[in-house]
Amino acid sequence: MVGGRSATADVRLELMGGFRLLAGGAPADLVGNAERLLAYLALTGPVARVVAAGALWPDVSERRGLASLRTAIWQCNRAVDGLVEAGEKRLALAGFVRVDTAALADLAAMPDDAAAGVLRTLRGELLPGWYDDWVLLDRERLRHLRVQWLEDVALRLAAHGSFAAAYELAFEAVRCEPLRESAHRAVIAVHLAQHNVVEAVREYRRFRHLLVDELGVEPSTELADLVFGRAGPGGRAAGRILPRPEPVGARSTSRR
Fold first, then answer.
1. 59 exposed, middle or buried (CB, 10 Å; 0-12, 13-18, 19+)?
2. 3-state DSSP helix/strand/coil percent for the chain, to nearest 5?
3. Is the four-CA dihedral 147, 152, 158, 162 of positive or negative sign?
4. Distance CA 80, CA 93 (A)
């Protein structure tokens, strides 16, 4: 080891909401290029040296990029011993490093309460302020994946009667994507599962007004049916307690 921390320490790499490397619970200091290398390896997995150099230093020659890569590897392993596994041709993040984004891939195997806890900790976007191409693609992928899990787990919690936790996750999905219909559908479905029909109607109206104001379009007929029409969650009739809202422009057309 070259002045760094032992690999036996608990090492965590956080990328959601900003870059942070923790070793034994304390921040580990890294310079910019070392941070970029760790983030790249965490998101891509094992990779050839020449590929990593080309992705991280695309505007320089291959020789210079490989030299910068060697320096970044040394800086990483100086901070935490063995942090980057550097072979002659390939690189990988050490297996003892726990990466926060990896938790999203593990949610399918978790109980709903545990999955909800993970989703609460993964807030913010991936590496805000970073604009590398390899970051932008994963940022979109993880954003969609997180919102989808928020919706799915919220619906499962509501089905089990855990309404407070279900509301928390469903509203977090709406906060992340205010114009996403499936996020509002999750909120409405939780309301209906608890027989709060009036709250479901209010949520539908809020979403409808937002969608019409922002995009000039109506929510889907499926969402309207969930609130006003034939069936609610689980196939139960929701009942037509209020008339359906008229589509945009329908009122003015009918008066001509």
1. exposed
2. 55, 10, 35
3. negative
4. 12
Rounded to an integer, what distance in angstroms lies between the CA atom of residue 69 and that of residue 91? 10
Report whether 107 contacts 149 (CB < 8 A): yes
Query: How long, in residues, is the chain?
Result: 256
Residue 16 has pLDDT above 90, yes or no: yes
Cβ atoms of residues 21 and 100 within 8 Å = no
Distance CA 112, CA 2 (A): 43
Contact call for residues 170 and 150 (beta carbons, < 8 A): yes
pLDDT tens profile 58-90 = 999 999 999 999 999 999 999 999 999 999 999
- Residue carrying structure tokens 């909800």: 116
CA distance 63 to 75: 19
What are the φ and ψ backbone dihedral angles of 154, each rounded to 5 degrees?
-60, -45
